[in-house]
Design a protein that fits this description.
The protein is about 40% helix and about 10% strand. By secondary structure, it is α/β, with parallel strands linked by helices. Strands 1-12-11-10-9-8-6-2 form an eight-stranded parallel beta sheet. Strands 17-19-20-21-22 form a five-stranded parallel beta sheet.
Amino acid sequence: MAVAANLGFPRIGAHRELKRQTERYWKGELTEADLLKAGQELRLRHWQLQQEVGIDVIPSNDFSFYDHVLDMACVVGAIPERFGWTGGPVSLETYFAMARGRPGEGPGGGVPALELTKWFDTNYHYLVPEFRRDQQFQLASRKPVYEFVEAQAYGIVTRPVLIGPVSFLMLGKARGSAFNRLELLDRLLPVYQELLSSLAQAGVRGVQLDEPWLALDPPPEGPLGDAYRRAYAALAEAAGPIRILVATYFEGLEENLATALRLPVAGLHLDLVRAPHQLEQLLRHPLPDGFVLSLGVVDGRNVWKADLTACLEVLERAARAWGRDRIQVAPSCSLLHVPLDVTLETSLDPELKGWLAFARQKLEEVALLTRALNEGREAVAEALAANQAQVAARRASSRLRNEAVRARLAQLGPEATRRPTPHRVRREAQQARLGLPPFPTTTIGSFPQTAEIRRLRARYRRGELDQGAYEAAIRGEIERVIRLQEELGLDVLVHGEPERNDMVEYFGEHLEGFAFTEHGWVQSYGSRYVKPPIIYGDVARPRPMTVEWIRYAQSLTDRPVKGMLTGPVTLLQWSFVRDDQPREETCRQLALAIRDEVQDLEAAGIGVIQIDEPAFREGLPLRRARWPEYLAWASECFRLATSGVRDETQIHTHMCYSEFNDIIEAIAGLDADVISIEASRSGMELLEAFVAFRYPNQIGPGIWDIHSPRVPGAEEMVELLRRAVRVLEPDQLWVNPDCGLKTRSYDEVIPALRHLVAAARRLREEAAGQEA
């Protein structure tokens, strides 16, 4: 018989319990025992939910207080020296220090956190393990064992989930001298072997080893196939009674399929949503005796109900080829990337709600498909018919199309996607208008979203505050932020975004074709959760979205105030996007809406407009062969949004942690006048791409890591800027934090910005002295 399997479950809780409890612990309001108990309660609730809906293979060790890659680093003892770990079990204090850094007593004190970067092409951020050439590993945490035993005590048998050894090394970063991370594999494998032995002793009979790197292009730095063969030969020897399932997702195995099928493991998981063609490839390969296939037919990354009949056809074909007893029915990947339960939504439009499936509903789909495969379609005929009716109703809905938007896009010519003059000409016009000093200072956009601001918005949404009172309060907050920036000495100001709940959700609320949830939270990193909007139809902007707030902020000061917008690619990437048309079509519709807003801001007298694209690189296909197509339409969409302005209007963009080397030409092709990037955690390493390429426009490499509560001192910021000056022209450089300040407190923001302004002034003095 086929079995219903799950690869991972959202860890945050139906009502964001994990966020609240973790943040209370950080504030000292909960003890460590309290936090551990809260985690245990969440795990039990989620295991029981999966059992109730009919999942046969339930994962454990998919829970994390911050990040599963950080968890694996702690399991194998990959703890950088700066955290003061001397061996033995990793404490919760050390764990959170790696995630968030240690503040320290004086300016610039403390310890910086591990770098954050995107988990493949998702909006989830993981903490990057750090490896030295002489790295040693040890089994420093038995979390996977403890959580299996914990579930077993409740009568629930689970399958522990681990990051596979090869992917774990590839997800990390070499520190000190450069070296191939795969050189560490032989030192790492004994720790995995010891962990498997411990799991076997605890009664584990099946383990899921996630190897997403197996579905990527082979890296140029080493023989990846040989690494996989050596690794799994060693693990198979140590596994004993444990059956290992290697899980891949987000892409197809392609040329790596033969390697995967030759590994001495019991089974393989394939993502048949992202790469449905894999089934045809698989049918051409003989399977080892007893080999199990986990087939990811339910989309683990989007919120639409599955077409169960189409999914069942795939499963039935696989069962005819290999037999039902070798099939596991599963989501395409961990359900970490979707909200927990659509039944919690009480105010969502009923028609739209009928189109959706969150984590719980996706597992119900998996269970139903498994039953249909085992018992025949007639056993679930009513459910299949209901699903087909809902799928058909969505496809036929008139709410999906806006003919005016489609006609307008069809009429646009190539001139709509390029500015008529080059940057060097525009730069002179912009400097004449703005009169900025060398090393101009600014922030990325948001200022702290205090409890008072959040309460204000909540009261307005509940109708406890009328529109006039709400707008007056927001204007008061904007004025406070403007005055603070003037006092601190910043050159280009922002209005602070007090009216915005989220950089994507806010804009979606002002656009047609979007829907919103009350409880549709997903984890972005740590305790930072987002509630992605749902793009269900054609996108249109019925009216201006930001103009009045920015116009008001500019009226308060003689210094330039940036208009702050989210770019079309990020609006696309950080939403749940309709799957009934190509993503690039939806992105062009978003770009057209942002273009109208940009032009309205310019008409209102705003001279600096920032269109943030932190998700630009994350949208890259994981296979390099498909990069050119994506980069072409993504760059075109940004230019469509930004190219309708005059030369003297300065266009900024912002991008988060990204490896820019491979796409630097496309970034230059955006033709933004100024780009700001996150660079502080990498010590300005990310600038190397801009140097090698001779990036022509201006750039603001971040000199303050806002993802950590740590406040860097002015000298530390000066040193980072000096590193930047050594590789870029001084007149190219802007001075700014890594990212927006929404998640930080004013106790951190004010001293850090004072240090930032002081650092910029020091560089100006040094530059003036050199000229003299």
